[in-house]
Amino acid sequence: MAVTNRDMANAVRALSMDAVEAAKSGHVGLPLGMADAATVLFRKFLKFDPADPNWADRDRFVLSAGHGSMLIYSLLHLTGYKSVSRDDIRNFRQLGAKTPGHPENFVTPGVETTTGPLGQGIATAVGMAMAERHLNARFGDDLVDHHTYVIAGDGCLMEGISQEAITLAGHLKLNKLIVLFDDNSVTIDGGTDLSDNTDQCARFEASGWITKKVDGHDEKSVEAALTWAKKQKKPVMLAVKTIIGYGAPKIAGTGKAHGGPYGAEEIAGIRENIGWKYPPFEVPAAIEKAWAKAGERSKKEHEAWNKRLAGSEHKGEFNAAMTGRLPKNIAKAIIKHKKAVVAGGEKKATRQWSGAALEVLTHLVPEMIGGSADLTGSNNTKTSHTDPITPKNWAGRYVHYGVREHGMAAAMNGMALHGGILPYSGTFLVFADYSRGAIRLGALMGTRVVHVMTHDSIGLGEDGPTHQPVEHVASLRAMPNMLVFRPADGVETAECWELAIANETGPSVMALTRQGVAPARTTHTDDNLSAKGAYVLSDCKGKAQATILATGSEVEIALAAQEMLAEDGIAARVVSCPCLELFEQQHGNYRKSVLGSAPRVAVEAGVRFGWDRWIGEDGGFVGMSSFGASAPYTDLYKKFGITVQAVAAEVKKRIA
Amino acid sequence: MAVTNRDMANAVRALSMDAVEAAKSGHVGLPLGMADAATVLFRKFLKFDPADPNWADRDRFVLSAGHGSMLIYSLLHLTGYKSVSRDDIRNFRQLGAKTPGHPENFVTPGVETTTGPLGQGIATAVGMAMAERHLNARFGDDLVDHHTYVIAGDGCLMEGISQEAITLAGHLKLNKLIVLFDDNSVTIDGGTDLSDNTDQCARFEASGWITKKVDGHDEKSVEAALTWAKKQKKPVMLAVKTIIGYGAPKIAGTGKAHGGPYGAEEIAGIRENIGWKYPPFEVPAAIEKAWAKAGERSKKEHEAWNKRLAGSEHKGEFNAAMTGRLPKNIAKAIIKHKKAVVAGGEKKATRQWSGAALEVLTHLVPEMIGGSADLTGSNNTKTSHTDPITPKNWAGRYVHYGVREHGMAAAMNGMALHGGILPYSGTFLVFADYSRGAIRLGALMGTRVVHVMTHDSIGLGEDGPTHQPVEHVASLRAMPNMLVFRPADGVETAECWELAIANETGPSVMALTRQGVAPARTTHTDDNLSAKGAYVLSDCKGKAQATILATGSEVEIALAAQEMLAEDGIAARVVSCPCLELFEQQHGNYRKSVLGSAPRVAVEAGVRFGWDRWIGEDGGFVGMSSFGASAPYTDLYKKFGITVQAVAAEVKKRIA
């Protein structure tokens, strides 16, 4: 008997449903519905080599509808990825298995990105497709020439982030991006018509995509559409009509088929309906063999690519880029830059100092690709080394992301995951709230991306409380696996940038001022003093009677308070804290030596929340306890009492 | 000389540009471009009475492109709102003026909602239009029958939230919603073609809107379009083609015209080009008079409405709804419900207890309108008193928001701002990250909305770290003017709901478990013990050697630890902390009496961030310090060490 596409798809269906039943949770509706189409994709189109999940020029496959994770686990397992064993499938959603509830790239080789929060996958895939186009322009067809495929569900397309992704991809004419929309007309609450009437094809076309409707249960229809899609000059969306929970006698095609174990009766019914006569977790040898063969389809192509790389003049550069190795001369360049900053002694906004540091770094690191969500001039993210990326100039290194903070953050994740790119981008700090979903996913995945976030406090002034971050630095510090930098001046900004791009295992945030700040560091040190997160910036003579902790624009206030206190004969030490996460990582002895044993007062133009860790319950805090207001920033600092006098008073209170 | 629409529009232009020049910041590009169209709207269509900005049946006008705030300030001032004086316009963006950088409804009567973060306005307006339809169904055409108008910019339409708003409005056939898209083809970075190619009309039509292209500088074209728009049976988007910075000789129509003061030369050029011969901040009497007349246009309609209300059988009910007065019998009903919960002694998830409390409350409070972002069954937000709202059943009280967390939160703000509705809705807590932009705006505006956020920790189990909040409770607690509730059992859940709906001046978050929790409150009290935010749930015999603080599902662990410690002869007190913001508001003596002076240990299945405020730098904390994992929740609590033993050990460490 010849093994058909349907037979192979049924193996995916069977493993998926058996796994969900065993786990007593999970979502089998999508794997049952999309099995036929995904089988065509993996059998005939996707370029991949299970023996080398990191092959740089593989096609990327993103299951944006991450709840259908058993689809991808079944496919990885059947095509021969070692990362997913039959036991992993048996242990779906159990502690330690390579088969978590939603696909996690840091757990399961072969999974390209972590999905589950809807819409993130498609937006991340846009970043992958952008990375491919840029690296293609940099290294040529020989080394970089692949597609990015996405399976997205109704939920993905209802999330706002999908619109940002779709419009960006359409604008950039990402012709190697192919989205298979699992058009099953069902969400958790019921039929999509409970909450949506969007004509998705028309919507995509409105933003420069090409679309086609496809019968997702007809192998030929899917194959013809994918063949056609690869020839288009624009991104393609295939509306793949499927029946969710395909085969389930009672619930197929309904909201009930979305998730949860179906129960023995329905499962038996599916087995009957799809003609699957085998016990749970068993796949007949002929079908296993057909799948193994599918997994070997691109082997020769991979070997040819290996040869091309071995013979390429770009080999060294390409490998450096793909492994994310930074040039060794960065440290020296930063030292040189810091010297010039100290010598200049200028008062500038840290966003401007960030622009200056980027001018140095983007010159040295060709992998750095910048951008901004339509605030280029304000974020100072564009340098002379970064020409705009356009559909006609993929060699550019600057993305005009448009007013799309969430899509931007997700695209950065995608570029970092693709490899070969070190993305950074800019917006106002307050709009971290818009992009937080993608920032978090970056922290979870450990993507090296840098979020430049300027206008970082009431110091932005007239734009008022809608634009003034108050709780944002705190809320970002609360997130695991992320470094939040808030440098005080030009020197610290350069140091923090050096640390941010060296932070290979997670995102970094650069919180930067709109307003000018006086130099805090007036003598040069080769050492990166920010590397320990906090350090004694200005010690006092004799034993400190108080320690003043400050970050960013408030370091200036702390230093002035120190001086004012000195005039009253009070000895206070000033500690600058550009990155409290790094400080937390230091040895306790170092932390104690910096903090001292005197009473502590912190000053930061944000909320106290989180600061008690460093100043204690009885410590003093000068900052915000409400939203801000619209006025020139000097008026606001007075109005909200973030002043030299206030800091000095808090110190005095504690040493009386 | 007869005063023309153009003359009146030029007054708006002049005041706007003079104000921005004086403030040396702000955005005059939009007011210059949209002045003609907005003048037509305010002169001939908008139903409003400057003498009574709170007239319940006024049309709502939302300037979604909030940076163009001088447009609305000029219009409010010229039409006769007392809230905006000429001096306020002279003091644009200065401390204490009624003219902040972006429109703030809590500062300036006549401003319907706070805008600035792009896309929020259009999404909030959808909520207003929903409120209008529902209240129309409840109270009839006599009392509720108005339009909602929006001016939105390119930036608003690029934000993902706009897609959620547009698709929701299209689905609901909100025919009384009319969006004027300021189609000026420019954003801050330059032409929109730098980052977007979307055919906005096609995009809106794909989701059930009707659209028309309009010449924004042709009074007749705008008037005809608005007349036509009011007759449609679907929401209408008018693509109003304008020239940004209209009149500016050098920069009109370019990215430079978006914001910032234009400088004396350009301003003089505009005066010349539009034929405005008057000094800064001066408007000729004839034009002032024409505007004053426009402001009085709806007076008669307002008087007629007043009469209809005075004679209406619904008068009492309508006024109660619009003022947000809650029925007095709530307290009794909650007490009765709490008694039954205690008597039942059941172990249930707090999301289930929330559903039970909602069953009581939605019965008593007809203003409560529920919903969920496609997680109805999981969020337990639907009750027997809340039928779904559909385009054919506006009397319903439950919104299937679709997978649109951000649009949902903004729509709730809009309903609350409209008045007559007390909205609540549900999603998973982790997706607070998706809706945070709108949650924050609600906190800033002080809207009474309740965000039900279930699956509030690793306790959700198998779905894994993408779905497990770890830092979310902390990040929400960091936000000013919001109450974050995390109740421990059925009694606390009922108490927290009582507090949440009584919280008239800001949003509340209900963080609720997926998993079952044992009753913490085993004896009934009439008093709402959660009202003080934290209280002694279980005291020890004799002097406490330690205080254990806990919230939500971890209260159970704290109580078991107390017992375990007692067996070792250690006296520990357990404090339940369902709302730390309320606890913070209590008198210091109460706080001290609850916390005691013994060493403290807190247990919460989230990050420590923020807890040092309550346990001190040396306090013990049992919780999370990383992202979670995918497994059954009992395995996860063990893996991450959130156990009775761990709490007991932290206590012992501190009393050794």
Short description:
Chain A is of the alpha/beta class. The first copy, chain A, has 26 helices and 20 strands.
Describe the structure.
The structure is a homodimer of 656-residue chains. The first copy, chain A, is an alpha/beta fold and 656 residues long. The first copy, chain A, folds into three domains: 5-303, Thiamin diphosphate (ThDP)-binding fold, Pyr/PP domains (Rossmann fold), CATH 3.40.50; 329-511, 3-Layer(aba) Sandwich (Rossmann fold); 532-655, Rossmann fold (3-Layer(aba) Sandwich). Helices cover 43% and strands 14% of the residues of chain A. The first copy, chain A, is built from 26 helices and 20 strands. The first copy, chain A, has a six-stranded parallel beta sheet with strand order 10-9-11-12-14-13, with helices on both faces. A five-stranded parallel beta sheet of chain A has the order 1-2-3-7-6, sandwiched between helices. In chain A, α5 (120-139) runs parallel beside α7 and α14 (330-344) packs antiparallel against α20. Chain A is elongated, with a radius of gyration of 27 Å. The model of chain A has no long low-confidence stretch (mean pLDDT 97). Chains A and B meet through α6, α7, α8, α16 and α17 of A and α6, α7, α8, α16 and α17 of B.
